[in-house]
Design brief:
This protein is an all-alpha fold. It contains 8 helices and no strands.
Amino acid sequence: MHAVTSSIFERGRTGAPTFAEAAEAHLADVHAYLVYLTGDRAVAEELTAATFERALRSWRRFDPRRGSARTWLCQVARSTALDHLRGEARRRRREDVYAALEPREHAAPLADDLSPALDAALRSLSAADREVIALRVLLELDSSTAARLLGISPTACSTRLNRALQRLEEKMRDAVAA
């Protein structure tokens, strides 16, 4: 056990970062991505912890030749979030509670520097729209990397981003007009 545990904290022959280095460098990005994906800061905090727990357990599978640690951690975060969201959907069906689908009145903003109108507009978007905006705009991932995370083509990723930004712009226009 000691050899396995210590290997995740020691730099490998490939020059890959240690798990501790990767976790420290990308914690904020993973958390921000999960906030946008889930639309809930408290859930995002729980999922961030679960993401890094999963990542620690599977760090030996990380291959720096296939992508950056940041991208790999975002893939783990996406998988963790999707598992959570599926579980929540099953729970809601089981309990037949639809009140959870309504937006919370006193939810914390998605990010500290967002205006209330922009925060409300982002919350009104679908999880898929928030996710592509988070990957491409917030985390500034290139189209091919974001597409790989989403499991779609770069063209589909660009299309999804353009449509999400158009919907966001419409929501903001409506908010300003109101």
